[in-house]
Amino acid sequence: MVVYTPADQLEEARTETDAATLHQLARTPYVFVRQALAANPATEPGTLLALTGTRDSPWNDNKLLLLLAQHPHADRAVLRAVLDAVAARLTEGERPYGAVLALAARPELTPAEVRRLASLHGASARLRSGLERRLALRTSP
């Protein structure tokens, strides 16, 4: 399908299952299309990885990082890229707290990898305690 308008792109990002089409949509300038791609369960890891380097505004960036951290096809490479992006955002003073907690729940990352986020400048006391609780859930039976 040829995509002409942002609305067409959004609809395709939400419903398309073809990997090549989804990857092409990742180049869109529209953040709502990129977020829809990150929410689409058919989006493959290579496309998810491409989305980790995009920026818009703090709110939209944090939402995208959360969606990427929660994506069922996010592999270790994608999650490491999200982890690095989250670390950068925390250091910049942004609050990607939802993505931090989502990363803590992912078994593809070690607790030590995620725990390092707690020591960054932007990590609040509440985030640190939530992070520890989320990591504890991974190890409990």
Structural features:
mainly alpha, 9 helices, 65% helix, 141 residues, globular
Structure description:
The protein is mostly helical. Helices cover 65% and strands 0% of the residues. The model has no long low-confidence stretch (mean pLDDT 94).
Number of strands: 0
How far apart the termini lie comes to 48 Å
Oligomer: single chain
Order of helices and strands: HHHHHHHHH
Low-confidence stretches: none
Mean pLDDT: 94
Global outline? globular
Q: What Rg, in angstroms, do the CA atoms define?
A: 15 Å
- Main β-sheet, in a few words? none
State the helicity in percent bands: 55-70%
Strand content: under 5%
Helix and strand arrangement:
Blueprint: H1 6-15, H2 19-25, H3 31-39, H4 45-51, H5 58-70, H6 76-92, H7 97-104, H8 111-115, H9 125-139
Helix pairs in contact: 1-3, 3-5, 4-6, 5-6, 5-7, 7-9
